[in-house]
Every structure is written in C-alpha cells, then in structure tokens.
Design a protein that fits this description.
Elements (H helix, E strand, L loop, with lengths): L1 E5 L2 H14 L3 E3 L3 E4 L1 H9 L4 E3 L9 H6 L7
C-alpha cells in the first residue's frame, strides 16, 4: 500500500471517482488516500496528477483516533 495526495481539487475529484469505481481506495484525513501500487497505473492512464507521500514512522490508525476522540455533550 502507498499513500498519495492529489495535486489539485479536480485531480482529487476525478482520481477518487476512478479509484472508487474501478478499484479500491481508502480515504484518510488531510486529503490523503491509500491505494495499492498497482492502482497508480490506473491514475497514470487517466492523467491524474498525484504525489506519493513518504511512509510515516507510525501508521495512521483512523479507527483508534475515532475511539479516542473526546466526546462532546450537546
């Protein structure tokens, strides 16, 4: 798996649509998406611009962040 960020809002919209309909994609916070290396060719084929993000030392655990978020009383 590799983490990417699209270079423009248009690339993000089109890229996410392509990945969601033809492959699988995991959306993370901050406009970061996680895809397999093989799916990058799909984005390249459609001329979608993106940057590959360097691996983080600690993996992002979205579920853990949600479980440990402070509660708000309305």
């Amino acid at each position: 798996m590799v983490r990417i960020r699209f270079l423009s809002e248009t690339d993000e919209t089109n890229g996410f649509y392509i990945l969601a309909t033809e492959a699988s994609v995991r959306g993370l916070r901050g406009g970061v998406y996680e895809v397999t290396h093989a799916r990058l060719a799909l984005l390249d084929m459609h001329s979608i611009r993106y940057e590959i993000l360097p691996p983080t030392e600690t993996p992002l655990d979205e579920a853990e962040a949600l479980r440990n978020s402070p509660t708000v009383e309305l």
